[in-house]
Amino acid sequence: MRASMLKFALFFTALTPVLAQTGAVTVDIHSGHVTNTFSPMLALGAGVDGVPTGTVNNVYTSTNIPQMLSAGFGPLTYRLYTELSVQDWHWNPEGTYSGPGQSGYWISSATSTQPIAHTHGFNLPRSGFTFDQGTSSGYSRVDDGDPTTFWKSNPYLSHTYTNDPDADHPQWIMFDLGSKQPVNAIQINWANPYATQYKIQYWTGPDPLYTDNEGNWITLPNG
Known about the structure:
The chain is mostly beta strands. It has helices spanning 40-43, 56-59, 64-69, 159-162, and strands at residues 3-11, 46-49, 76-79, 87-90, 95-97, 106-108, 120-123, 172-183, 199-203, 217-219.
């Protein structure tokens, strides 16, 4: 089989079909039937993005906070860009590693001995991008040129952590070939554990991440 591809992806679980729902929706605006209320000044706010490690205490000072709140945006929060750095976010910096020393996966404690001021972005030991958008220092174990290393799907999306069926959180990996290339075979070297259901697809548009409305993922019938 030959297919001209710009990008292709592997999906490691069966996708759950979405069923169309029809029916009437009734909107009740009677003041005596209010079930809940919210204050826009409390529910809406602003965020500070991309604060470097160790600088939170320098940003949120008794002098800076009143100046930030004076803008009238409501509550002010700060954000980690863990999704850009291919990390998993953990709310509690107190915890342990699953492996000896500082190896394996980070497991946050269910409680904290002190107020939490700093959350934790944890690098997955078997994942990563060839180029990440957070720290620009990541690399992928898929194309690092070392046959002894491997890429692993995100364990925190498995049933063990989510209590959801694994089919609800399909995981995927995408390869960018840089330009349209003729491809007639794909070889997957599975490790243990390995996927029991998967699809191999190629993309027909310019960019599936930023222009996902300009193309489609096409499943290879023999994948």
